[in-house]
Amino acid sequence: MSLADYDAVGVTLKASTYGVVWFLVLLNLVPLLFILSVSFMPPTEFFGAPHIVPYEPTLEAWTSGFAELKDNLVNSFLIGTGTALLALAITIPGAYAFARKEFYGKKLGFYAIILAMMFPYILLVIPIMGLWNDLGLYNTIPGMILAYQVFVAPFAIWILRDFFETLPKDIEEAAQVYGCTQFSAFVRVILPLAAPGIVAVGFLAFLTGWNDFLFANLLTTGTGPVPAVPVLYGTIGGGSGERVYWGKLMAETLIIGTPPTVLYLVARNYLENAFTV
Amino acid sequence: MSRNTTTRRETDRTATDPPEESMNATTDQTHGETNSDGDHIQIDGLRKTFDDGAIVACDDVNIAIDEGEFVILVGPSGCGKTTTLRCIAGLEEPDQGQILVDGEDITGLKSKDRNLAFVFQSIALFPHMSVRKNIRFGLDMNTDLGSDEKNRRVEDVAETLGLAEMLDRKPSALSGGQQQRVSLGRAMVMEPKAFLLDEPFSALDANLRDEMRVEVKKIQRDLNTAMVFVTHDQEEAMTLGDKIVVMNDGHVQQIGTPYEIYNDPRNRFVADFIGSPSPNLLECTVERTEDGLAFVSAFCSIPATDEQVGHVEDRVGETVVYGIRPEYLDIVPDGGAFVADLDVVEPLGDRDAIHLSAGGTSLSAVAPQGEVARGTDRVRIDIQTEESWLFERDGTRLV
């Protein structure tokens, strides 16, 4: 076979593309596989020589992990859902105003909101803790929900504003000509059309409330509504250097990761439907 | 739905109407007979500016629309025609002026309280609703009709527009023409006092556009509801309108029937804008010759008609603009007013547009198909001077 028949460049390119893709896939898959495998191992196995398939699989880590997390998962769920709902309630009207209305300081106000995203949140902990104490919001679920708005509201307004801006103005005007006030046109026409954006923002807001560690750890105490993530931190030993029960840690990690994954799959289906209107 | 062919009557004619009147009578002009006591829709001194007055979209717009009249607002883009329509619909708040419907001032009312239907250039259907829901939308929002009555109206309209099979589809499953039909249907079910259409067919391809034009005109005749139609296409304006409002730079230039606008433009802009190919406009000097007054340009001398003499007698030596439509330039075998070089022959179907140049000026004429043989390079042109117009250099009509 002569060299001319052989597309060296093409083959190399394809091979390296697949090489990179496989590398990235394995980079994610291998640790996940270990997490899964370790979660079914008894302590004697995960402290021994590393292997993938457990010799004596056990559900012990899962049952004890779940028992420990049960109440905290409910807290996390309430906080995540509350964060998403409050964020949507605040940012839908806000983003609509930034997209469609003219008002004094519109540009400046928007930049200020974006700037708030650049702020290192840890600095906010001190004033928020003091303020929440005074207001009786410390160590409460509403307090957590309110605190997360600091993270969530800016990006929600940003995403939703862009979404509202892409919706044709004519459709809104048509609704107004045919019997809507500006508000009912918004509810009947704009909101349904913005559904994909709203679902996406709601999901991201839920994820923020669900996964956050900083506020979750600092704004609650052991007697209060502690979300699931700080419990996971406790399982590592809270950084105390004690022996870590890896099996339980892995099981708890998977337990905490499951609800957002399910929610994502549900939301993804919805998004696809919503985009084909 | 009232078919009112019997209630139609001839357009009121005034003494100033041009001699082409006899042609006028052959078209079907509809003016509602119920409307002897005043105009149906009246727009008085409308002014609308944007950016705190920096941009004047329309100014001093006065239009009277009779019941059942098909009015076209036509003009180049940015002339204020769409702004005027949006003010009527309540989608823009005018700075000054009033809009009256049946004598009632609706200027400050919300769109939904005006009982006027608007058809958008972009069609603007609600993409998340079925065709049926789209058409019903206005009835659901703005009326207390029973469900049966609403359904009946929707079905009637869908039948008229040929949408009966598509009522349960989403707009995205329809073609552009069908979507615009739905948009018309959404307007028709409301049984509004007037339809306002903003370049409704500009997104459609040429054949479909012609088809929809005929359809809309027919629907308008059947319903005998006033219709205000915005377009930038002068041909569309001529074919559709009972009354044409020509706008430019935010001002109404002329209001009249298609024939009035075509034959008797009030100024140079209207003359130039209406008609294809565009009229010939020549800058000429008024001069006294042995045969009387004449308009002299670089390449020809055109004798003034008796009517024109009266207006330019005392303006010898001044410059005026002489306007003549291409169809009034005749190609003659000998004689004629001047000789021109033939540049291009553009077949238009039954006739040819002949593009000429003489003395550095471009001219156009129209001749029956094939009258000018291919390969001709010089032709003699005669001018039907009775059909000419005279304008001042600033564009106002002299005679």
From TrEMBL, chain A:
One of its GO terms (cellular component) is plasma membrane. CDD domains: TM_PBP2. Its main location: membrane. Residues 73-267 form the ABC transmembrane type-1 domain. It is a multi-pass membrane protein. The keyword Transmembrane applies. Signal peptide: none annotated. The keyword Membrane applies. It is found in: Cell membrane. Pfam families: BPD_transp_1. It comes from the Archaea. The chain crosses the membrane at residues 20-41, 77-98, 110-132, 144-164, 185-207, 245-267. Keywords: Cell membrane, Membrane, Transmembrane, Transmembrane helix, Transport. Coiled coil: none annotated. One of its GO terms (biological process) is transmembrane transport. Belongs to the binding-protein-dependent transport system permease family. This is Carbohydrate ABC transporter permease. The lineage of its organism: Archaea, Methanobacteriati, Methanobacteriota, Stenosarchaea group, Halobacteria.
Automatic annotation (TrEMBL), chain B:
Residues 41-274 form the ABC transporter domain. One of its GO terms (molecular function) is ATP binding. SMART domains: AAA (SM00382). It holds the Pfam family OB_MalK. Residues 23-35 have a biased composition (Polar residues). It is an enzyme of class 7 (translocase). GO terms for cellular component: ATP-binding cassette (ABC) transporter complex, substrate-binding subunit-containing. The keyword Transport applies. It is found in: Cell membrane. The keyword Translocase applies. It catalyses: D-xylose(out) + ATP + H2O = D-xylose(in) + ADP + phosphate + H(+); L-arabinose(out) + ATP + H2O = L-arabinose(in) + ADP + phosphate + H(+). It is a peripheral membrane protein. Keywords: ATP-binding, Cell membrane, Membrane, Nucleotide-binding, Translocase, Transport. Its EC number is 7.5.2.13. It comes from the Archaea. Transmembrane segments: none annotated. Residues 1-39 are annotated as: Disordered. Part of the ABC transporter complex XacGHIJK involved in the uptake of xylose and arabinose. Responsible for energy coupling to the transport system. The complex is composed of two ATP-binding proteins (XacJ and XacK), two transmembrane proteins (XacH and XacI) and a solute-binding protein (XacG). Belongs to the ABC transporter superfamily. Carbohydrate uptake transporter-1 (CUT1) (TC 3.A.1.1) family. This is ABC-type D-xylose/L-arabinose transporter. It comes from Haloarcula salina.
